[in-house]
Task: structure prediction
Amino acid sequence: MEVVIAPGPVLAGLAADAVERLLTDRPDAVLGLATGSSPLPVYDELARRHAEHGLSFARARAFLLDEYVGLPADHPQRYRQVIDTELVSRVDLAPGAVHGPDGLADDVPAACAAYEQAIVDAGGVDLQILGIGSDGHIGFNEPGSSLASRTRIKTLTSQTREDNARFFGGDVAGVPTHCLTQGLATIMAARHVVLIAQGRGKAQAVQKLVEGPVSARWPATVLQLHPHVTVLLDDAAAVRLQLADHYRETYANKPAWQGL
Ligand code: GLP
Result:
């Protein structure tokens, strides 16, 4: 696990660099896309590189991490809608190349199994962009999630619904109670995971993620078992890390030839 502590705009640039390098090497790469506010500066930077430098997503494919259950297809907070607004409409990703769990499926287990199969059929996710919830969730894998879980329905914690109420006009009651999410084992199958966290509200979850014991209590800790994870933090999100100085020194002395 590599920990990089830097100002927000630098973090977004580093994540965008990783995406750009991947697409340059492999134009038909498979991206894992996260919603929430953390990745938005990364999508802004990718859209800028597309507009100004011709970074192309034309042959790329993408899979979303998660989706609310029951939001109408045209609801602006449906994650499929959010990702269209924040990224797909601003680059040349083909709309048909972007997939998400079907939060309106009648047969939920079948839809989840089909989603897992679609990821496998695409060859797996090359680079997964991730945020982290203040309760340590990744995707919507709330505390108690099986570390071996696959795409399935989950109940959101009241903490997460309160955190996300800001996207629903501040109305917690408007936030769906259930979601479909890639499981922790699904996320772990991505070849490179780039997690971005900013702000003091993430500091405890980040400390557990990087330095805590691996436990379903803090689902993001499963990433300690992944061979290629990059954790991008601003100073506020890193404030509780016991070895912050070590991570800073390590990154400052990183060999120039080593990418993320
Ligand atoms: C949301 C999403 C996650 C996201 C997390 C943090 O509920 N399902 O994918 O990483 O919570 O969101 P934010 O980046 O807005 O803090």
